[in-house]
Amino acid sequence: MLTIVDDYMQQINGKVPDEYLEILRNELSALVTRYDIEPKSTELTVWKGYLPECYKVFCVTKKIEGKSPETLRKYMMRLEEFFRVMEKPLEDITANDIRAYLYNFQKDRGVCNHTLDSIRACFSSFFSWAAAEGYLEKNIMAAVKPIKYERKERGYLTAYELELLRAACETKRDKALVEVLYSTGCRCTELIRLDLADVSFEKGEVALFGKGSKHRKSYLTAHAEIALRAYLETRKDDCPALFVKERAPHTRMSKAGIEKIIRQLGQKAGIQRRVYPHLIRHTTATMALQHGMDVTEIQKMLGHVNISTTMIYAKVAEEQVKNSHKKYIA
Hints:
Blueprint: H1 2-12, H2 18-32, H3 55-64, H4 69-86, H5 95-109, H6 113-132, H7 159-167, H8 172-184, H9 188-193, E1 199-200, E2 205-210, E3 214-219, H10 222-232, H11 255-269, H12 277-290, H13 295-302, H14 307-316, H15 318-328
Helix pairs in contact: 1-2, 4-6, 5-6, 7-11, 8-10, 8-12, 12-14, 13-14
Protein backbone atom coordinates (compact mmCIF):
# COMPACT_ATOMS: atom_id res chain seq x y z
CA MET A 1 0.00 0.00 0.00
CA LEU A 2 2.77 2.40 0.94
CA THR A 3 4.39 1.78 -2.43
CA ILE A 4 1.31 3.25 -4.09
CA VAL A 5 1.52 6.30 -1.84
CA ASP A 6 5.22 6.74 -2.58
CA ASP A 7 4.64 6.50 -6.32
CA TYR A 8 1.88 9.06 -6.16
CA MET A 9 3.96 11.45 -4.03
CA GLN A 10 6.75 11.31 -6.60
CA GLN A 11 4.32 12.20 -9.37
CA ILE A 12 2.98 15.29 -7.61
CA ASN A 13 6.37 16.45 -6.30
CA GLY A 14 6.83 20.05 -7.40
CA LYS A 15 3.16 20.42 -8.29
CA VAL A 16 1.97 20.90 -4.70
CA PRO A 17 3.46 23.33 -2.15
CA ASP A 18 5.96 21.59 0.17
CA GLU A 19 3.98 22.46 3.31
CA TYR A 20 1.07 20.32 2.07
CA LEU A 21 3.09 17.28 0.96
CA GLU A 22 3.46 15.74 4.42
CA ILE A 23 -0.21 16.27 5.23
CA LEU A 24 -1.22 14.68 1.92
CA ARG A 25 1.09 11.72 2.52
CA ASN A 26 -0.39 11.04 5.96
CA GLU A 27 -3.97 11.29 4.70
CA LEU A 28 -3.32 8.95 1.77
CA SER A 29 -1.49 6.44 3.96
CA ALA A 30 -4.47 6.30 6.31
CA LEU A 31 -6.92 5.98 3.42
CA VAL A 32 -5.27 3.08 1.58
CA THR A 33 -5.15 0.93 4.69
CA ARG A 34 -8.94 0.60 4.40
CA TYR A 35 -8.72 -1.19 1.01
CA ASP A 36 -7.23 -4.35 -0.47
CA ILE A 37 -5.41 -3.27 -3.61
CA GLU A 38 -3.76 -5.62 -6.11
CA PRO A 39 -1.71 -4.87 -9.24
CA LYS A 40 -3.77 -4.70 -12.42
CA SER A 41 -3.71 -7.98 -14.38
CA THR A 42 -3.46 -7.80 -18.18
CA GLU A 43 -3.64 -11.56 -18.70
CA LEU A 44 -6.55 -13.03 -20.62
CA THR A 45 -8.99 -14.87 -18.40
CA VAL A 46 -11.23 -17.72 -19.48
CA TRP A 47 -14.86 -17.57 -18.40
CA LYS A 48 -15.59 -20.59 -16.25
CA GLY A 49 -19.32 -20.13 -15.97
CA TYR A 50 -21.97 -22.61 -17.02
CA LEU A 51 -22.31 -23.76 -20.61
CA PRO A 52 -24.45 -26.83 -21.34
CA GLU A 53 -22.52 -29.84 -22.58
CA CYS A 54 -24.57 -29.99 -25.77
CA TYR A 55 -23.66 -26.41 -26.72
CA LYS A 56 -20.61 -27.41 -28.77
CA VAL A 57 -22.53 -30.27 -30.39
CA PHE A 58 -25.17 -27.76 -31.49
CA CYS A 59 -22.53 -25.50 -33.07
CA VAL A 60 -20.93 -28.43 -34.89
CA THR A 61 -24.34 -29.58 -36.12
CA LYS A 62 -25.15 -26.16 -37.53
CA LYS A 63 -21.76 -26.02 -39.23
CA ILE A 64 -22.39 -29.40 -40.84
CA GLU A 65 -25.83 -28.15 -41.98
CA GLY A 66 -24.03 -25.43 -43.92
CA LYS A 67 -24.59 -22.35 -41.78
CA SER A 68 -22.23 -19.54 -42.72
CA PRO A 69 -19.32 -18.57 -40.41
CA GLU A 70 -21.10 -15.28 -39.70
CA THR A 71 -24.31 -17.06 -38.65
CA LEU A 72 -22.33 -19.45 -36.44
CA ARG A 73 -20.52 -16.51 -34.85
CA LYS A 74 -23.84 -14.84 -34.02
CA TYR A 75 -25.25 -18.08 -32.59
CA MET A 76 -22.22 -18.50 -30.34
CA MET A 77 -22.19 -14.87 -29.21
CA ARG A 78 -25.91 -14.79 -28.37
CA LEU A 79 -25.99 -18.17 -26.64
CA GLU A 80 -22.83 -17.66 -24.59
CA GLU A 81 -24.09 -14.31 -23.34
CA PHE A 82 -27.47 -15.85 -22.51
CA PHE A 83 -26.01 -18.75 -20.53
CA ARG A 84 -23.66 -16.38 -18.73
CA VAL A 85 -26.68 -14.45 -17.48
CA MET A 86 -28.78 -17.53 -16.68
CA GLU A 87 -26.12 -19.43 -14.70
CA LYS A 88 -28.36 -22.47 -14.31
CA PRO A 89 -28.58 -25.97 -15.80
CA LEU A 90 -30.18 -26.21 -19.22
CA GLU A 91 -33.10 -28.32 -17.98
CA ASP A 92 -33.99 -25.68 -15.35
CA ILE A 93 -34.41 -22.83 -17.85
CA THR A 94 -38.05 -21.92 -18.45
CA ALA A 95 -39.97 -19.96 -21.06
CA ASN A 96 -40.36 -17.17 -18.51
CA ASP A 97 -36.57 -17.03 -18.17
CA ILE A 98 -36.38 -16.46 -21.91
CA ARG A 99 -39.04 -13.75 -21.82
CA ALA A 100 -37.37 -11.99 -18.88
CA TYR A 101 -34.00 -12.11 -20.61
CA LEU A 102 -35.39 -10.64 -23.84
CA TYR A 103 -37.28 -7.94 -21.93
CA ASN A 104 -34.21 -6.88 -19.96
CA PHE A 105 -31.97 -7.08 -23.01
CA GLN A 106 -34.16 -4.65 -24.92
CA LYS A 107 -34.53 -2.34 -21.91
CA ASP A 108 -30.77 -2.24 -21.24
CA ARG A 109 -29.52 -2.15 -24.84
CA GLY A 110 -32.34 -0.22 -26.50
CA VAL A 111 -32.49 -2.59 -29.49
CA CYS A 112 -35.42 -2.60 -31.91
CA ASN A 113 -37.97 -5.40 -32.12
CA HIS A 114 -36.37 -6.71 -35.30
CA THR A 115 -33.05 -7.28 -33.53
CA LEU A 116 -34.81 -8.74 -30.50
CA ASP A 117 -36.70 -11.21 -32.65
CA SER A 118 -33.46 -12.33 -34.30
CA ILE A 119 -32.13 -13.16 -30.81
CA ARG A 120 -35.34 -15.05 -30.04
CA ALA A 121 -34.91 -16.96 -33.31
CA CYS A 122 -31.38 -17.94 -32.25
CA PHE A 123 -32.69 -19.30 -28.94
CA SER A 124 -35.51 -21.06 -30.78
CA SER A 125 -33.02 -22.80 -33.04
CA PHE A 126 -30.98 -24.04 -30.09
CA PHE A 127 -33.81 -25.17 -27.83
CA SER A 128 -35.73 -26.81 -30.70
CA TRP A 129 -32.59 -28.73 -31.60
CA ALA A 130 -31.91 -29.67 -27.95
CA ALA A 131 -35.44 -31.05 -27.56
CA ALA A 132 -35.28 -32.96 -30.85
CA GLU A 133 -31.94 -34.50 -29.87
CA GLY A 134 -33.21 -35.58 -26.46
CA TYR A 135 -31.22 -33.15 -24.34
CA LEU A 136 -34.50 -31.63 -23.14
CA GLU A 137 -37.91 -33.19 -22.50
CA LYS A 138 -39.70 -30.40 -24.35
CA ASN A 139 -38.99 -27.32 -26.42
CA ILE A 140 -39.65 -24.36 -24.11
CA MET A 141 -39.38 -21.94 -27.04
CA ALA A 142 -42.70 -23.26 -28.37
CA ALA A 143 -44.34 -21.03 -25.73
CA VAL A 144 -42.32 -17.93 -26.69
CA LYS A 145 -44.07 -16.32 -29.62
CA PRO A 146 -42.28 -14.40 -32.40
CA ILE A 147 -41.85 -10.69 -31.70
CA LYS A 148 -43.75 -8.46 -34.09
CA TYR A 149 -41.87 -5.72 -35.87
CA GLU A 150 -42.45 -3.42 -38.80
CA ARG A 151 -41.09 -4.90 -42.02
CA LYS A 152 -39.68 -2.11 -44.15
CA GLU A 153 -40.28 -2.29 -47.85
CA ARG A 154 -37.23 -3.26 -49.87
CA GLY A 155 -35.58 -0.28 -51.50
CA TYR A 156 -34.41 -0.41 -55.11
CA LEU A 157 -32.86 1.77 -57.76
CA THR A 158 -35.12 3.32 -60.36
CA ALA A 159 -34.24 2.78 -64.01
CA TYR A 160 -32.89 6.35 -64.09
CA GLU A 161 -30.72 5.79 -60.99
CA LEU A 162 -29.38 2.55 -62.44
CA GLU A 163 -28.27 4.42 -65.56
CA LEU A 164 -26.64 7.08 -63.38
CA LEU A 165 -24.74 4.34 -61.56
CA ARG A 166 -23.58 2.83 -64.84
CA ALA A 167 -22.45 6.23 -66.13
CA ALA A 168 -20.43 6.82 -62.95
CA CYS A 169 -18.17 3.81 -63.64
CA GLU A 170 -14.73 4.93 -64.82
CA THR A 171 -12.86 1.62 -64.87
CA LYS A 172 -13.74 -1.53 -66.77
CA ARG A 173 -13.69 -3.48 -63.51
CA ASP A 174 -16.23 -1.18 -61.85
CA LYS A 175 -18.48 -1.40 -64.92
CA ALA A 176 -18.27 -5.20 -64.84
CA LEU A 177 -19.01 -5.27 -61.09
CA VAL A 178 -22.21 -3.26 -61.50
CA GLU A 179 -23.39 -5.22 -64.54
CA VAL A 180 -22.73 -8.66 -63.03
CA LEU A 181 -24.42 -7.70 -59.77
CA TYR A 182 -27.48 -6.45 -61.65
CA SER A 183 -27.61 -9.23 -64.24
CA THR A 184 -27.31 -12.13 -61.80
CA GLY A 185 -29.00 -10.61 -58.75
CA CYS A 186 -26.29 -12.27 -56.67
CA ARG A 187 -25.32 -11.44 -53.11
CA CYS A 188 -22.02 -9.68 -52.48
CA THR A 189 -20.69 -12.78 -50.69
CA GLU A 190 -21.56 -14.84 -53.76
CA LEU A 191 -19.81 -12.38 -56.03
CA ILE A 192 -16.50 -12.52 -54.15
CA ARG A 193 -16.53 -16.34 -54.28
CA LEU A 194 -16.86 -16.38 -58.07
CA ASP A 195 -13.94 -17.81 -60.02
CA LEU A 196 -13.19 -17.44 -63.71
CA ALA A 197 -14.17 -21.09 -64.13
CA ASP A 198 -17.68 -20.32 -62.82
CA VAL A 199 -18.53 -18.21 -65.88
CA SER A 200 -19.64 -19.76 -69.17
CA PHE A 201 -19.83 -17.15 -71.90
CA GLU A 202 -20.98 -19.82 -74.35
CA LYS A 203 -24.08 -20.54 -72.26
CA GLY A 204 -24.38 -17.06 -70.77
CA GLU A 205 -24.42 -18.63 -67.30
CA VAL A 206 -22.79 -18.02 -63.94
CA ALA A 207 -22.50 -20.78 -61.31
CA LEU A 208 -23.12 -19.25 -57.89
CA PHE A 209 -22.33 -20.76 -54.49
CA GLY A 210 -24.62 -19.07 -52.03
CA LYS A 211 -26.31 -18.97 -48.69
CA GLY A 212 -26.70 -22.31 -46.95
CA SER A 213 -23.91 -23.78 -49.10
CA LYS A 214 -26.32 -24.10 -52.03
CA HIS A 215 -25.38 -23.99 -55.71
CA ARG A 216 -27.51 -22.31 -58.34
CA LYS A 217 -27.24 -20.77 -61.78
CA SER A 218 -27.85 -17.23 -62.87
CA TYR A 219 -27.46 -15.56 -66.20
CA LEU A 220 -25.59 -12.80 -68.00
CA THR A 221 -27.32 -10.09 -69.97
CA ALA A 222 -25.65 -8.73 -73.10
CA HIS A 223 -24.57 -5.66 -71.11
CA ALA A 224 -22.99 -7.86 -68.43
CA GLU A 225 -21.22 -10.13 -70.92
CA ILE A 226 -19.71 -7.22 -72.85
CA ALA A 227 -18.59 -5.45 -69.66
CA LEU A 228 -17.13 -8.64 -68.16
CA ARG A 229 -15.24 -9.59 -71.34
CA ALA A 230 -13.79 -6.07 -71.56
CA TYR A 231 -12.62 -6.24 -67.95
CA LEU A 232 -11.08 -9.71 -68.28
CA GLU A 233 -9.10 -8.57 -71.33
CA THR A 234 -7.28 -6.12 -69.04
CA ARG A 235 -6.25 -8.86 -66.59
CA LYS A 236 -2.57 -9.87 -66.63
CA ASP A 237 -2.58 -11.88 -63.38
CA ASP A 238 -3.01 -15.57 -62.76
CA CYS A 239 -5.49 -15.31 -59.86
CA PRO A 240 -8.46 -17.69 -60.32
CA ALA A 241 -10.92 -15.14 -58.87
CA LEU A 242 -13.33 -13.39 -61.22
CA PHE A 243 -12.78 -10.01 -59.60
CA VAL A 244 -9.38 -9.02 -58.18
CA LYS A 245 -7.80 -6.01 -56.54
CA GLU A 246 -6.21 -3.47 -58.89
CA ARG A 247 -2.91 -3.41 -57.00
CA ALA A 248 -0.37 -6.22 -57.16
CA PRO A 249 -0.40 -9.06 -56.29
CA HIS A 250 -4.01 -8.79 -57.56
CA THR A 251 -5.67 -11.04 -54.99
CA ARG A 252 -9.40 -11.76 -54.71
CA MET A 253 -11.53 -8.74 -53.82
CA SER A 254 -13.12 -8.58 -50.38
CA LYS A 255 -16.73 -7.92 -49.45
CA ALA A 256 -15.74 -4.63 -47.81
CA GLY A 257 -13.83 -3.61 -50.93
CA ILE A 258 -16.78 -4.17 -53.25
CA GLU A 259 -19.16 -2.41 -50.86
CA LYS A 260 -16.83 0.59 -50.79
CA ILE A 261 -16.67 0.77 -54.59
CA ILE A 262 -20.46 0.59 -55.00
CA ARG A 263 -20.96 3.18 -52.25
CA GLN A 264 -18.51 5.60 -53.88
CA LEU A 265 -20.09 5.07 -57.31
CA GLY A 266 -23.48 5.94 -55.81
CA GLN A 267 -22.07 9.14 -54.35
CA LYS A 268 -20.36 10.06 -57.62
CA ALA A 269 -23.60 9.40 -59.52
CA GLY A 270 -25.40 11.87 -57.27
CA ILE A 271 -27.89 9.32 -55.97
CA GLN A 272 -29.33 10.85 -52.81
CA ARG A 273 -29.16 7.76 -50.60
CA ARG A 274 -26.74 5.00 -49.71
CA VAL A 275 -26.02 2.60 -52.54
CA TYR A 276 -24.77 -0.90 -51.70
CA PRO A 277 -24.51 -4.29 -53.49
CA HIS A 278 -27.70 -5.71 -51.95
CA LEU A 279 -29.64 -2.67 -53.20
CA ILE A 280 -28.68 -3.73 -56.74
CA ARG A 281 -29.95 -7.25 -55.93
CA HIS A 282 -33.26 -5.71 -54.84
CA THR A 283 -33.30 -3.74 -58.08
CA THR A 284 -32.85 -6.90 -60.15
CA ALA A 285 -35.78 -8.59 -58.43
CA THR A 286 -38.03 -5.54 -58.67
CA MET A 287 -37.24 -4.90 -62.34
CA ALA A 288 -37.88 -8.57 -63.13
CA LEU A 289 -41.24 -8.45 -61.37
CA GLN A 290 -42.23 -5.22 -63.09
CA HIS A 291 -41.43 -6.73 -66.49
CA GLY A 292 -43.64 -9.75 -65.83
CA MET A 293 -41.24 -12.43 -64.59
CA ASP A 294 -43.02 -15.11 -62.55
CA VAL A 295 -42.37 -14.80 -58.82
CA THR A 296 -41.32 -18.47 -58.55
CA GLU A 297 -38.70 -17.86 -61.25
CA ILE A 298 -37.46 -14.83 -59.33
CA GLN A 299 -37.27 -17.01 -56.22
CA LYS A 300 -35.06 -19.49 -58.06
CA MET A 301 -32.89 -16.74 -59.54
CA LEU A 302 -32.28 -15.14 -56.15
CA GLY A 303 -31.82 -18.42 -54.30
CA HIS A 304 -34.58 -17.84 -51.78
CA VAL A 305 -35.53 -20.94 -49.81
CA ASN A 306 -38.93 -19.52 -48.86
CA ILE A 307 -41.27 -17.95 -51.40
CA SER A 308 -42.44 -15.51 -48.70
CA THR A 309 -39.04 -13.82 -48.87
CA THR A 310 -39.47 -13.25 -52.59
CA MET A 311 -43.03 -12.01 -52.11
CA ILE A 312 -41.66 -8.97 -50.27
CA TYR A 313 -40.75 -7.61 -53.70
CA ALA A 314 -44.38 -7.87 -54.74
CA LYS A 315 -45.15 -5.10 -52.24
CA VAL A 316 -42.51 -2.91 -53.86
CA ALA A 317 -44.32 -3.21 -57.18
CA GLU A 318 -47.68 -1.99 -55.84
CA GLU A 319 -47.29 1.27 -57.76
CA GLN A 320 -47.15 -0.75 -60.98
CA VAL A 321 -50.42 -2.48 -60.00
CA LYS A 322 -52.00 0.94 -59.46
CA ASN A 323 -50.89 2.12 -62.90
CA SER A 324 -52.10 -1.10 -64.53
CA HIS A 325 -55.45 -0.70 -62.78
CA LYS A 326 -55.87 2.74 -64.34
CA LYS A 327 -54.85 1.37 -67.74
CA TYR A 328 -56.96 -1.77 -67.89
CA ILE A 329 -59.97 -1.07 -65.65
CA ALA A 330 -62.10 1.80 -66.83
